[in-house]
């Protein structure tokens, strides 16, 4: 049979102090709540969008997957919401590769605020030689907004145009050598964007988002108009 063994190390430790465990759990919970999620900036969203664009060009994402993820990018409010969108892409694990597609903004320069174009029972136009920032908002109510980017200086790698057309219209023209994408919706109206991907992976892109209700949003490339130098605006 078995011989004598010292079993003292297996002695019953005594009753568990449940109140102490509860206090510790409350303390951990408060600590977690005290650390709010980091809010995402426009630069964070643009960086993730560029990674997704590269994944689409490499065939890692389908067009539908890319559209869904880009839509989620510009709905995200925190950095934690952005990270899962590129977690399964190899470029996401290489910060240096991601930085290579950062917007060509001078170091230390703040992002430009969004430009607003509003047409209420009238019209609003932005065209000619102008500096296009990263975000534009277009609102048309019984009126029309025209945005012409064919001669604009692109200050960002990606421009996001948020549109709202209510019994009105928004018309957008872009150069033919950029990428044009859309995540907008038409409700008793039309959201017609001739989406396409540029053959040049370094080309800038324009993303059209928003909604057309009893109105219309249209965007297409203008043949013969090309972006010559993305960094010309610097």
From TrEMBL:
Pfam families: DUF1707, LiaF-like_C. Signal peptide: none annotated. Residues 38-90 form the DUF1707 domain. Residues 135-198 form the Cell wall-active antibiotics response LiaF-like C-terminal domain. This is DUF1707 domain-containing protein.
